[in-house]
Amino acid sequence: MYKVNKANSVLGAFIEEIDLSQHLNKKQIEFLYETLAKYEVIFFRNQILSHKDHRRLASAFGEMQTHPAYPTVFNFPEITILENDEENPSKIEEWHTDMTFKKNPPLGSILIGKIIPETGGDTMFSSLSKAYDDLSHEWKGRLEEMNAIHSFEFGFKESLEEEGGRERLADALKENPPVSHPVIKQHPVTGRKIIYVNRLFTSHIEGDDADGSILNFLFDHIHQEKYQYRFSWENNSIAFWDNRSVLHKPVNDYWPQLRRMERITIES
Ligand SMILES: [Fe+2]
């Protein structure tokens, strides 16, 4: 079978000797799915994928989403373009899990590095299962009872404040009212528990946390370096992350260089 090399002791694995531009059979897809669940994010190097290949690969894992706020590739509405340069610096700075403002947030995303700047532009990943494991018995019990509110409006507040932002995002706002998720979730494949809050979309914990101190404690806890892996991109690298168990965060240190990524997000 393929070579699987751990990225570090916490999360992530590099998979070698597989060509993702080829049609993969059921056994190969199952292998990738299980490896993803186990390591929480899987990485590949030197994968030359057309838009069709990208779509075929992603569709093997589930339905593909269209994102309410980003541009897409012509004729491929499921491929989101994440392009940043001098005129359009990246706005996302926070640790987050994608689209937790939805009732059923995505399973994961397959992100391809198309144009990678000479320096900078890494992506950080952080394990929410390892962060959960380290909580005290008391905290685990307490948090089990809590729910938190996740909101599109909260997450995209900067875009909404821009000139014309509210009009541009009016439909997305209407379609995505705030939702409630348990603070502790269980991963459907591994059964591991995770801490399910993120600074981008979680506005508050319902009920018992009026001053936000519990939520802030959780943010400080899950953002610790010991749960992280920092991935350095090359052209044609791929990161496929399990959105049910990791946080991620871009490192926006490449401005004004161009960085272009293409992403497909898969429904859970
Ligand atoms: Fe993201």
What is the mean predicted local confidence, pLDDT?
Answer: 95
State the helix count: 9
Task: Please give the order of strands in the largest beta sheet.
Answer: 1-2-3-14-6-16-5-4
Q: How many structural domains in the coordinates?
A: 1
Class of secondary structure makeup: alpha+beta
Shape: globular
Quaternary status of these chains? single chain
Q: Find the CATH topology.
A: Double-stranded beta-helix
Strand content: 25-35%
State the distance separating the first and last CA atoms.
Answer: 27 Å
Q: What is the helix content?
A: 10-25%
CATH class designation: Alpha Beta
Annotation, overall tally of beta strands: 16
- The CATH superfamily title: Clavaminate synthase-like
Largest sheet: 8 strands, mixed
- What order do the helices and strands follow? EEHEHEEEEHHEHHHHEEEEHEEEE
- What are the bound molecules? fe (ii) ion
- CATH architecture classification: 4-Layer Sandwich
User: Unreliable segments (pLDDT under 50, ≥5 consecutive)?
Assistant: none
Structural description of this entry:
The protein has 268 residues and is α+β, with helices and mostly antiparallel strands. The protein has a single domain, classed as 4-Layer Sandwich (Double-stranded beta-helix). It contains nine helices and 16 strands. It has an eight-stranded mixed β-sheet with strand order 1-2-3-14-6-16-5-4, with helices on one face. α1 links the parallel β2 and β3. The longest helix is centred in the N-terminal third of the chain and has 14 residues. The relative contact order is 0.27. The structure holds fe (ii) ion. Fe (ii) ion binds next to loops.
